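Recap from last week: sequence in, structure out.
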Amino acid sequence: MHNQSNIRTLSRPLLVFGVAAMTIVAILMAARGVSAQVITTNFASAAPLTVTEADSGTITANVVVSYGTKAGVSMPLRVVVTPNASAANGEITGKTVNKTVSGAGSFTVAVTVRGDLVPEPSQTARVEVSSQIYTSVGNTTTLTVLDNDHPTVTINNRTTNENGGPAVHTITLSKAISVAQQFRVRTVNGTARSGADFVAIDQLFTVNANATTRNVSVTLVGDTVIDLSQSKTYTLQVTPQTPGDLASSGNDLSANGTINDDDQGNNTLANAIFQFGSDSVAPANNLSGSCRSTMEVSEPFNGSKNVQFRLTLDRTVSRPFEVNIFTEGTTAGPDATSQDFTSIDNVVLFPANTRSMTFIIQFHDDGQSEGDEWIGLRAIGGMIANTQMCLQNFLGANSDIKIPWNVF
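Predicted structure tokens:
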């Protein structure tokens, strides 16, 4: 009896100690993120991992392997990292790790990933976790290495004076890569025309390996003519020859070129009027540039006739300039129609160092008995200053031509 009492007395502290120890273990497991639930099945698995390569050198991809064993069990594990065929050239270093574990926890497998400047698809490696003793333990997952060597491409717009060429555009990659890139570059006409304003291009340009830029020079056709428009434009179309090496912006792209006319020099704008070609050139000091200066042209009988007109300036210009001379309808009385005259809409060259130039309009007999008719005659040029807002609100030299009724 005495011995049994002692045994009962001794068992109480042992029981208390055992409960306390289990509580401490549970607290430690919870602190490490491991469930305090008793592990009934051994397990081990690796989590999938994605990393991005560097431009040079190496980085480490840390594959995490989690495990758990039954109480008192030591479990040998093997982790095998096998690069795929395209990554087996050294971009991902394969390795095998053997480790014996017990309890619950995790460890990392450090995989070496080599960086480069080669545009290529993403590389992968197979990660397999297994145990020779516990054959049901383990899993297979993937380590993925993303490529960062697909640069974006841009080409800049450029504004250049006509006589200040060439116009230099620059193809730019967002980063250098170790593979040369070729681009087909073509000029496309806009208001600027190849041959007249620039020399056309249709050729390949190369951005060298480990470089980021290549210049494209567009030769401009300079002259001394003051253009009708003070600026003209063209387009450069750029087509990558290996678009798979580039980011999404590696599709066709374009740039605008603007050519500014720089031929005006010290010349000042001139006022202008229309006259008949048979008129004497109006004195410069008597040229008002009037918005309305009506001229009468009689309708021909039976057929057509040519009438010469004169565009007269109040001063000379030291360089030739473009002027657009055209006919149009007018609101002053019934409009003449195409049966009454042959319309014109011509850009012509006004000669340098002269005050006038002549041109022809053809008038027709329309075979009808009718009242007086009107057409508008307008001139717009880079060196014509007239800005009266007349009828149709056209700028430049303005006259209305009256076609009196011809009596049969």
